[in-house]
Amino acid sequence: MVPSSTDEMSFDEKLRRGERVEMVVDIYETADAVRDHDPNKEDMNTKKNAQTQQIGDTEWSRRYRLAAVCLGLLCVLLLAANTVLWVKFTADINQLQTSNHNLTSEINQLWTTYSNVTVMKEQLLGERNGLQKELSIHGWNYFNFSIYYITIEKKFWSNSRNDCKQRGADLVVIKSREEQEFISKTFSQTEAWIGLTDKDNEGSWKWVDGTALTTGFWWQGEPNDYGRNEDCAITGYRIAADNVSTWADYFCDFPVVGICEKMLN
Ligand SMILES: [Ca+2]
Ligand SMILES: [Ca+2]
Questions:
Q1: Ligand 2: distance of its center to the CA of 48 in Å?
Q2: 66-80, 126-140, 141-155: range with highest mean pLDDT
């Protein structure tokens, strides 16, 4: 198909228009180049860039200062925490040293007291041994806050009791197995009056201090009130299997030595 003249003209016109468009573009580009090389505009752009950079620098500077301030505050807090911990540690150490000093003082005081008590104990033991020796010389024997004496002359029960009273004592009152063992060991198998009788009420044994008999060490078959006239008790009648002397009731008007007891408390 052959193009028409209108189409040919249009084609040429298009070419010319294209050229004009290119020229216009060149003109505008030239104008832009000229405008872009405007010293005033460049200066403004430079200032604008400088301002932008300055704004950026100011922002970074502010952030750096903020970080520095935070770091400084953190350092201050750490320093304060260390100071508080050091003060508390020092106070605890001082308190511990004070407590240790007080404890040491108390221990020393206790040792001093213990030493004094030990010295006093030794002195008392020495005095007790000296007193026992002195008592033994005069025929007395010590046991559990009492001293004991055995009379020499054999007498009736009531007369032996009077002998004891003249020595500031009375016939012995035996209230425990330990005391009976002491009597047995000290005075052996000697038959001797003790402070026990039923002469006021037959069968109702009472001690000279008025108390009733609770623990007896009678030999087997005793008391038997032989002849219905045995109302006074002796010790050292027989030796039992446990090597402790036993009791029996005797006729009160029978000559026997007596064991005296004087309580010290
Ligand atoms: Ca009797
Ligand atoms: Ca008898």
A1: 144
A2: 141-155
- Across the range 109-132, mean pLDDT stands at 93
Here the tokens at position 28 are 């505008």
Taking only the tens place, the pLDDT of each residue in 180-219 is 999 999 998 899 999 999 999 999 999 999 999 999 999 9
How many other CB atoms are found less than 10 A from the CB of residue 158?
15
Q: Which residue has the tokens 């020796």?
A: 133
- In angstroms, the CA 29 to CA 34 distance is 8
Round to whole Å and give the CA distance between 175 and 138. 25
**Is the Cβ–Cβ distance between 210 and 180 less than 8 Å?**
no
* Strands in 172-221 per DSSP E: 192-197, 206-207
Structure tokens at 111: 């040792």
Q: Which domains, and CATH codes, for the chain?
A: 141-263 (3.10.100.10)
CA 107, CA 102: separation in Å to the nearest integer?
9
This prediction's pTM: 0.58
Distance 77 CA to ligand 2 centre (A): 102
Rounded Cα–Cα distance for residues 261 and 168 (Å): 9
Among all bound ligands, the one having the nearest atom to the CA of 230 is: 1
Distance between Cα 232 and ligand 2 center (Å): 9
Percentage of the residues of the chain whose pLDDT score is greater than 70: 83
Ligand nearest to the CA of 218: 2
Please tell me the predicted confidence (pLDDT) of residue 6: 45
Structure tokens given for 254: 């029978």
Of the pLDDT bands very low, low, confident and very high (cuts 50, 70, 90), residue 3 is very low
Counting every residue, how long is the chain? 265
